[in-house]
Amino acid sequence: MTDLDEYGRRARAWLDANTGDLPREPDLATARAFMGKLYDAGYSGITWPAEYGGQGLSAAEERAFQQAARDVSLPVGVFGIGFGMCGPTLVSIGTEEQKRRYIRPLLRGEEIWCQMFSEPGAGSDVASLQTRAVLDGDAWVINGQKVWTSVARQADYGLLIARTDVDAPKHKGITMFIIDMHDPGVTVRPLRDMTGESHFNEIFFDDVRVAPDQIVGTVNEGWSAAVTTLLHERVSIGMGAARTERPASFEALSRAARDRGLLGDRAVVDQLIDLYLQERAFDLFNARLTQEVKAGVFPGARGSIAKLLLADLTMSSADVASEILGAESVAYEGEGKISRALAWAPGMALGGGTNEIMRNIIGDRVLGLPREPQVDREIPFRDLKVGTQSEEGK
222-255 burial string, b = 16+ CB within 10 Å, else e? Predict the structure, then answer.
């Protein structure tokens, strides 16, 4: 037995011993406790730098653990943004002090992170954001609003981008900050979606004071920092979904069609075949990205392909489920709770960047096609009429 085989065997034995009594929907305290145990066992942050609290192991050990955990439901969803977006951003461009302060608690599940970019008037055009940060003595004072923020109610910290220079073009006068979500000037309000749950939140900032050592990257260069986070986000969304059981999967819907005697219907079979091909293309593409990431090759803009494939696959799955289940699909409580998956499906074409934005990124940065004209790129932000910006707000 090779060392990797032994590593995977020990990981599987640990998972068997520590996940059997987990509740189906664990609360936050249970999830935090589990992450602490996972970290202490050496299975959290496997490839993250050891000097900042990671395990410092290779991609091979990470793959061995993922294989061991492939059919185990781990209560780690609330930590996904920290692991997939915020943490990697800090490792990439954070200061030495920021890495040493924040990475270990993140990996242990002691601190939860969120990402605050979108605003009511700046969704796909994130650079149009109007949340302001003004230097006041020894601190930056932040006022404004963010929206569509996942896990904000549970989060302890978050990465926020705010406008710090209205005289610069919109992509230039932006800075990234680490925000303490427990600051009294931070107000989080849940937003209920059509699944009946509140996956997202809106956040208001009223005179929130942030020290200069909480800046990530450089003042007025926050757009570059945000691009780093967004690249990690799109890769993590796509690759994370590839490791997650999909309720309206080809396998689940094939069983549903068989149980309803629909496998003799050529139209249904054709839809299932198309869905199978989409799933295979998505899984194979993500397997390639995973291998590259573990080899130290970051996919960059190609992460947008994974995000686009996932959005298309999710909508296709919803269409096939509706065809097979009919009216029953809105109340279906069979394996995987397909009805909830159908209600959630449209959101995948929006969250993390719309399909249209993904196609623009793929065209510009992957295929090398000419960029779309941007007539406002060099105009000072205060001279733009964007979102809800008014003369008083300038």
Answer: bbebbebbbbbbbbbbbbbbbeeebbbbbebbbe
Which pLDDT band holds residue 238 (cuts at 50, 70, 90)? low
pLDDT, tens only, 171-181: 999 999 999 99
Looking at the predicted structure, is the pLDDT value of residue 237 above 90?
Answer: no
Tokens of 92: 């990439």
How does pLDDT run across 304-336, given as a tens digit for each residue? 888 899 899 999 999 999 999 888 777 655 544
For 75-133, how does the pLDDT look when each residue is reduced to its tens digit (9 = 90+)? 999 999 999 999 999 999 999 999 999 999 999 999 999 999 999 988 778 899 999 99
- Please report which helix (H) or strand (E) contains residue 62, including its range: helix 59-68
**What is the rounded distance in angstroms from the CA atom of residue 338 to the CA atom of residue 334?**
7
Instruction: Choose among 81, 206, 237, 232: nearest CA to 156.
Output: 81
Contact between 150 and 200 under an 8 Å Cβ cutoff? The reply is yes
Q: Which residue has the tokens 């979102």?
A: 387
Torsion of CA 217, 218, 221, 226, to 10 degrees: 20
What is the full DSSP assignment across 166-189? TTSBTTTSEEEEEEETTSTTEEEE
Per DSSP, what are the bridge partners of residue 159?
115, 178
Active-site annotation holder among 61, 233, 279, 391: 233
CA torsion, ordered 357, 338, 313, 60, to nearest 10 deg: 100
Considering all CA atoms of the chain, what is the largest pairwise distance in Å, rounded to the nearest integer? 74
Q: Tell me the backbone φ, ψ of residue 188, rounded to 5 degrees.
A: -110, 130
Distance CA 188, CA 182 (A): 10
- In the three-class reduction of DSSP (H, G, I as helix; E, B as strand; rest coil), residue 380 is classed as strand
Confidence of residue 34 (pLDDT cuts 50, 70, 90): very high
| Ramachandran bin of 370, using left for φ above 0, alpha for ψ from -120 to 50, beta for the remaining angles | beta
Average pLDDT over the chain, rounded to an integer? 88
Residue 233 bears catalytic tag: yes
| pTM score of the predicted model | 0.85
